[in-house]
Amino acid sequence: MMHQAGGELPARLSGVFLAFATIPEAINQLPTMQVLIGVLFFLSLTFAGLSSLISINEVLIASFAEKMNIPRRKVVIGYTIIAALASLVFTTGAGLYILDIVDHWINNFGIVLSGIAELIIIGWMFKLLSVREHFEPISDFKCR
Question: pLDDT tens for residues 46-72?
Fold first, then answer.
């Protein structure tokens, strides 16, 4: 497939397109058991997505339920409704473009900026000595 593309990977063969167009085409070109491998591939992709969805959302749901003393069932229902409404933007024709833009900004800037913000908040708003006294007994590295 790479040879047919002229020896270089076109930009359209990345991201979501890679998983749902390029890889199935590669599976179709296998000499045997294409159907079995295709079914196993998409099942594994489905289970990977579901397990990621559950683990990411569980953090938010558990923290809302615990911090606000709201029953877990109500938090799950409210969170699901809000997430479903927010995800409707991806059903539009611009959904993949929005996903690419959000993904680019979060991966290239959001993670770094949130780390810097965390360092600033810990450094200015908390007494660093108290943080050190808390972590030093459980840490492998001693500051003294």
Answer: 999 999 989 989 999 999 999 999 999
Q: Which residues of the chain have pLDDT under 70?
A: 1-17, 143-144
Domain that holds residue 132: 94-144
Residue 121: per-residue pLDDT: 85
Q: Is residue 21 part of a domain?
A: no
Cα–Cα dist 64/58, whole Å = 10
Number of domains the chain is built from = 1
Residue the block writes with tokens 């972590």: 135
